[in-house]
Amino acid sequence: MRSRTHFSVDIFVKKSLVALILFVAAMAVAVNSANAQKVVGTFKTGENPVGIAVDSATDLIFVANFGLGNGNTVSVIDRVTFELVETIRVDQGPGGVVINPDTRLVYVSNTGLDVSNTGVASGKTVSVIDGLSLEVLETITVGNGPAGIAVNIAKNFVYVANTFSGTINAIDAATNEVVEQMAVGSAPVEVRVNPLTGFVYVTNSRMGIGKGTLSVIPDTEGRRNKDITVNVGSGPGGLGINPLTEKAYVANFRGDNVNVIDLARNHRVIKTIPVGKQPGEIGVNTVTNRIFVANSGNNSVSLIDGEIDEVVDTVNVGARPAGIAVDLKNNMVYVTNVESNSVTVIKDEAPVVGGEPGANPTPTPIRELTELAVDPTTSEGWRGRARTAFVFALDQDKKPLPGVNIAATASGADATVTPASGITDASGLATFNYKFSRRSSDGLINFTAENLSVSIRQN
Question: Are residues 381 and 247 part of one domain?
């Protein structure tokens, strides 16, 4: 295991692990909006549900139950019927959940529960669950107090933020081994990966004492650049990334606001959005460009319009909302309610254009394919290395366009690409596997749709 030192601040120890896990928000800004979202259902879970993830392909929802009684489990829920499919026992205090859609594996961070109230987290593991058989395959030892967890699909890596170690671990999901440990700031809470760049982002909460930071860890195929530290508000916890608009959203638990960070221009804070008291977990719908923030103080979820970066709506949910999962395929948002032992289901409905409710809306323009874009981290291929290409279809407003058929062809250098074609999903993404088997100057893989094309060349 390699160990590296990054920009960091002193770690402050505070006695409430549960308060850390419930790094969530209370909305204080009421607005009259024509974009009202609709609560379409609620279902029960185990005790004190926190983390949540949805697998749109299998129609299963995975909920991490943090509590002691009917906790230390993962509830598996049928997305269509809201019925309990299975209860999976994991280690103590499961908090974060993430799914790798390529492998159908589910990863759960077991934060541990401080029953002695000494301020020391007992959890040091990540559970690996088969998303099809619903069995625990392996338990991986990580740092102290693992909380936020994220997956890099292209690399098949899993990243976990260890709150009481001040580190993040990188797990090679092919071997389930920790291959790297990286020091970040004080009391890291959440971790996210930008799928287009491979950059890893970590919120460092400092346990809510003073201003916090966001660690930015570049990842360029093993060639590391110097890490970046971004100063944010007080007690940062929740974190959301929209790779299509190149923005990050950081919820500041003590600052009662959300920082908007420009990922394309030196990772600087470009706006601070006042929300409610103690904003927490964040979910991003890249299809609608809307950002959802869980608000624990008044049991609501606030909605930010990513076009203008302002709060435009508020939805009432259960008691102490914590985790948020966004289903891009079905435009649904799932919110765990810690004290209600339930999940609220919200339909992310399209906004009314052209005035107040009841007014004649402006006709929605026909969406046309105007651009194909390939993940820049795979825009060049290396001989002998099997890789994954992420090809995006975008409309005239640079929004993801689902349902586009993209044809894939390879020429030169014994190049191969599978499948031969792919249809973009709700996030405008089609995924292909490719490989250049020998060195050649004419190695080329083309992806075409209608009259547009984008290519990967051999390096």
Answer: no
User: Could you tell me what percent of the chain has a pLDDT over 70?
Assistant: 82
Per-residue pLDDT, averaged over 122-129, amounts to 91
Domain shared by 88 and 195, yes or no: yes
Say if residue 99 is in the same domain as residue 16: yes
Q: Which domain holds residue 6?
A: 2-347
Total structural domains in the chain? 2
Residues 306 and 221 in one domain: yes
Same domain, 162 and 305: yes
Q: HEC string of the chain? A: CEEECCCCCCCCCCCCHHHHHCCCCECCCCCCCCCCCEEEEEEECCCCEEEEEEECCCCEEEEEECCCCCCCEEEEEECCCCCEEEEEECCCCEEEEEEECCCCEEEEEECCCCCCCCCCCCCCEEEEEECCCCCEEEEEECCCCEEEEEEECCCCEEEEEECCCCEEEEEECCCCEEEEEEECCCCEEEEEECCCCCCEEEEECHHHCCEEEEEEECCCCCCCCCCEEEEEEECEEEEEEECCCCEEEEEECCCCEEEEEECCCCCEEEEEEECCECEEEEEEECCCCEEEEEECCCCEEEEEECCCCEEEEEEECCCCEEEEEEECCCCEEEEEECCCCEEEEEECCCCCCCCCCCCCCCCCCCCCCCEEEECHHHCEECECCCEEEEEEEECCCCCECCCCEEEEEEECCCEEEECCEEECCCCCEEEEEEEECCCCCCCEEEEEECCEEEEEEEC
